[in-house]
Design brief:
The protein is mainly alpha-helical and about 160 residues long. The protein has a single domain, classed as Arc Repressor Mutant, subunit A (Orthogonal Bundle), CATH 1.10.10. It has a two-stranded antiparallel sheet with strand order 1-2. Helix 3 packs across helix 4. The longest helix is centred in the first third of the chain and has 28 residues. The protein is globular. The N and C termini lie far apart (about 35 Å). About 10% of the residues are buried.
């Protein structure tokens, strides 16, 4: 059984992390000269790419909580800037998937690389077992929170 003070400390730490990530993403929108929705879209595409998962325009619209018309405009803007491309879906030739471009990866890393270095510096001296425990907790938390959000969505 967990110590209630340890649980509260962890919940407060999650709040602090969330606040820091919000500020970091706000800063990135200015540095990358794009709006918050564009940055969220690029971040989603990058994460799904790491997971080797395709992203359809419909999935992007759901993720951002916008209409398909709004996401079409967003995708057009990202494509015009050279950050995303529409490709034929590998299993359904009638639909499209969205793919990050090398330019998007380079641009994102240029502005996010310092943050990644800071994170790596903090993790480097840590024990692998502890890091696996932290990673497992964060992965489970993200999955559960995403599942709860989908279940509570009235659409």
């Amino acid at each position: 059984m967990s110590d209630p003070s340890a649980v509260m400390r962890t919940l407060r730490a999650i709040q602090l992390l969330n606040d820091a990530l919000d500020r970091m993403h706000s800063d990135l929108t200015g540095l990358m000269k794009m709006n918050a929705s564009d940055l969220k879209a690029l971040r989603m595409l990058a994460i799904r790419e790491q997971q080797q998962r395709d992203v359809s325009p419909h999935e992007l619209a759901e993720h951002l909580g916008v209409s398909t018309a709004a996401v079409t405009t967003l995708i057009d803007r990202l494509a015009a800037q050279g950050f995303a491309e529409r490709h034929p879906h590998p299993r359904d030739g009638r639909s499209r998937i969205l793919v990050l471009t090398p330019k998007a990866r380079a641009h994102f890393f240029q502005h996010f690389g310092g943050h990644l270095s800071t994170m790596r510096e903090l993790m480097e001296p840590m024990d692998s077992t502890d890091l696996h425990t932290i990673a497992g907790f964060l992965e489970t938390l993200a999955t559960r929170l995403s599942s709860e959000q989908r279940e509570s969505d009235p659409t």
